[in-house]
Design a protein that fits this description.
With 516 residues, this protein is α/β, with parallel strands linked by helices. 39% of the residues lie in helices and 15% in strands. The strands form 5 sheets. The chain has a 4-stranded parallel β-sheet, sandwiched between helices. It has a 3-stranded antiparallel β-sheet with strand order 10-9-14, with helices on one face.
């Protein structure tokens, strides 16, 4: 029997082929290397009809070599496993591959991989496989239609310039104006009568906030505080990281930019060091607890798996995503990050986080009043056993790199998706919409002008998140759902008018649709 496995990333091909052999599945493995089909890049014409059906979505001419390779590989295959990424973008790519290979529909199966481990591969390829490529893709198709409709209908273009409008970035502009993100924190300290130093982490979003934090820290250091509450209790040393927090921590600790951090995360996944990266989750599977317990024992760490939050399987496949975690039980966690290559270093960071989520520390917390405000100071009285050190805080202001601060803000506000959020951050930073010298993220004149146009269209800080909820809800017709979403935001009439009209071609760079 001849088997074919189709994945997205070329970096997975060799590793997956080798690991499949270890479970007795001999297969050819080819990669789509991203999307094989797309809409035209130009937004004008809109290429949507009045029912929001795409009129020019087609296989990409610039990917003809990849398309031909996939077709050749599929010829004569008895079983074709489409193992594109287990997210909505992967479902869209799988749907396009199924259309491309429609002559082999009886041989096509959808496979979802959370990690490139032997147990995961056995579960994914050995269980009941789905033959449905349509319904899972509805969510991503709906998002693609809405994003194109918004960009085409509302981007303001004249002969000199353009003011782009996009679901995520326009909501981000409104969000930054209404609630500026933290761009750092101020470490303030007080010394207790027993000599113990306790720390308060004061978030800073603006220059005024920085000045106020400095003032409060000075008052606290002078002892000009009023004790409101003092407690001691056991608390987890860490909380689980999602995709954005892994990227943020990797960028800061490994001294790379966000694009590099995202690439390193993908490499770590493709090498079988960590589970699937692009997820927002709040817990772990029971497999993760077992791996963490084995890692903790090997590295002589204190650990209790009962403290790890569990994520039960609840999606349509009966298997849910979990927070990123290691897959290697033999990893040494005490090694300096500087002696490791970047994917290994990132995997160690993730493993340390998981271990610390299963550790408790005795913490003293003191809540005090300072100049009519409240601050909470704390310090660990006990340290869980582990072979790596936790850095002591320094007094004063600790700035967060702007891209990292923006990434964390977008994650908190549910703007974008893990598959696109880094691209959104870097694109926004390149557009020159912020004051360069200010503490904080203050819109400059250009940013204010773009925001005013987005607001006139009807964008608010929560517009993208509300649309995202509608994209994620069950649906039977992505086009009908797209019409409902745009109608609910008073945008449908303008989109339909655009579909019936022609105009000046959009500026290719600035007026391109938001990334999927």
């Amino acid at each position: 029997m001849r088997n074919l496995v189709i994945v997205e990333a070329a970096g997975k091909v060799d590793a997956l082929r080798s690991r499949l052999k270890s479970i007795g599945l001999h297969a050819d493995v080819v990669a789509t290397v991203g999307h094989v089909a797309d809409n035209p890049r130009s937004l004008n014409p809109i290429e949507l009809d009045s029912d929001l059906r795409e009129t020019a979505y087609a296989f990409r001419e610039d990917r003809q070599g990849v398309i031909d390779k996939i077709r050749r590989a599929a010829f004569g295959a008895d079983r074709i496993y489409v193992a594109t990424d287990d997210d909505q973008e992967g479902d869209v790519i799988a749907h396009d591959v199924a259309r491309l290979l429609s002559d082999y529909a009886d041989h096509l199966y959808r496979v979802r991989l959370r990690a490139l481990t032997e147990s995961e591969l056995k579960e994914s390829f050995g269980g009941t496989l789905s033959r449905d490529f349509d319904v899972p893709a509805h969510h991503g198709i709906c998002r693609r239609i809405v994003d194109r409709a918004i960009g085409a209908a509302f981007t303001l273009v004249d002969e000199h310039s353009a003011i782009p409008v996009g679901r995520v970035q326009s909501s981000l502009l409104a969000s930054l104006k209404e609630s500026p993100p933290d761009v750092g924190h101020f470490n303030a300290a007080i010394r207790m009568t027993d000599g113990k130093v306790l720390w308060a982490n004061i978030p800073v979003a603006t220059k005024a906030g920085l000045d106020r934090a400095s003032e409060l820290a000075e008052l606290a250091a002078q002892g000009r505080v009023k004790l409101l509450e003092a407690v001691e209790r056991d608390e987890p040393v860490a909380r689980p990281w999602g995709y954005e927090e892994v990227i943020a921590e990797a960028s800061i600790r490994l001294h790379v930019d966000l694009y590099q951090a995202a690439d390193v995360f993908q490499q770590a996944y493709e090498r079988g060091l960590v589970t699937y990266p692009r997820v927002r989750a709040n817990g772990f599977t029971r497999d993760a607890v077992e791996i963490a317990a084995a890692l903790a024992e090997q590295n002589r760490c204190g650990f209790d798996g009962a403290y790890l939050p569990l994520r039960e399987s609840s999606d349509i496949q009966g298997r849910a995503h979990e927070c990123p975690r290691p897959v290697d039980e033999d990893m040494l966690l005490g090694r300096p990050l500087a002696v490791l290559d970047l994917p290994e270093a990132l995997a160690v960071l993730i493993a340390r986080n998981v271990i610390e989520c299963g550790q408790l520390a005795r913490v003293r917390k003191v809540r005090v009043g300072v100049d009519d405000e409240e601050l909470t100071f704390s310090a660990a009285l006990t340290q869980a056993r582990k072979p790596w050190k936790t850095a002591e805080p320094d007094r004063g202001f600790v700035a967060t790199p702007r891209p990292v601060a923006l990434l964390r803000h977008m994650a908190r506000e549910q703007l974008g998706r893990p598959s696109t959020v880094v691209g959104h951050v870097m694109k926004f930073m390149q557009r020159g919409l912020l004051e360069e010298s200010a503490v904080g993220m203050t819109l400059n004149a250009r940013g204010e002008r773009w925001l005013a146009h987005a607001a006139s269209v009807g964008f608010h800080p929560d517009t993208s998140a509300r649309m995202e909820e509608a994209f994620s809800a069950p649906m039977t017709d992505p086009h009908a759902r797209a019409r409902e979403i745009l109608s609910g935001h008073a945008m449908l009439d303008a989109v339909r008018n655009k579909a019936l009209a022609t105009g000046v071609a959009a500026v290719p760079d600035e007026a391109c649709p938001e990334p999927f």
